[in-house]
Design brief:
Layout: E1 15-17, E2 24-26, E3 33-39, E4 47-54, E5 58-59, E6 66-74, E7 78-82, E8 85-89, E9 94-98, E10 103-107, E11 112-120, E12 126-132, E13 136-145, E14 149-153, E15 156-160, E16 165-167, E17 173-179, E18 181-187
């Protein structure tokens, strides 16, 4: 008979998305390129998960009315100047700020790959948490690999290259990191 989903198993097959499959889209300010991982709508999104390559010191685009979470997914790190205050972000570090804040990134030593989560004010709360080898988390909605990683999603292991993702975990899922580290999207599906 048909397989009955067990607790912690996704009800639908998850999607493994490779970094190379994502088309680049210019930043709103035209000074960088982002690669959309997932969103609830292609243009009029309420939430969006993306990666970006930061290869020089650059201001971020302004997104008033949007919550932003930034994670260093690769590279040595970056200092984010947020409304004149410096926030140092090394590998796998997470910074949270308002989309309307004035943010300028200063790279430390070569290019940085970022994982970015945005969601609009008044929509369900979301966050990014870094999960490292040996750690587990329930209720994960998506993961992006910070370097080559292996993750167990609902009991099935997926091998991920740098910035590859497992997405569409719409019911929230149990994720365990077998090797490496991932940026995991957690939060509520309803307001």
């Amino acid at each position: 008979g048909p397989e009955v989903p067990r607790q912690g198993r996704p009800l639908l097959p998850v999607i493994v998305q490779r970094r190379s499959e994502r088309p680049g889209v210019p930043w709103r300010n035209g000074l960088g390129v982002q690669y959309e991982v997932d969103a609830d709508h292609p243009t009029d999104w309420i939430w969006r998960l993306s990666t970006a390559d930061i290869d020089r010191d650059v201001p971020f685009s302004s997104f008033p009315g949007v919550h932003r979470v930034f994670c260093v997914g690769g590279g040595s790190g970056v200092t984010l100047e947020v409304n004149g205050r410096d926030v140092a972000c090394g590998p796998c570090a997470v910074a949270r700020f308002d989309g309307g804040d004035a943010v300028h990134a200063r790279i430390w030593d070569g290019p940085v790959q970022a994982v970015n989560l945005m969601w609009r004010d008044g929509s369900p709360w979301r966050d990014l948490e870094v999960l490292e080898q040996g750690s587990s988390r329930m209720g994960v909605l998506a993961v992006v690999a910070c370097g080559a990683s292996s993750v167990s999603v609902g009991g099935r292991v997926h091998e991920l290259g740098h910035l590859d993702a497992v997405i569409r975990l719409d019911e929230g899922c149990d994720v365990s990191v077998v090797r490496g580290a991932v940026a995991a999207v957690v939060g509520s599906l309803t307001a």
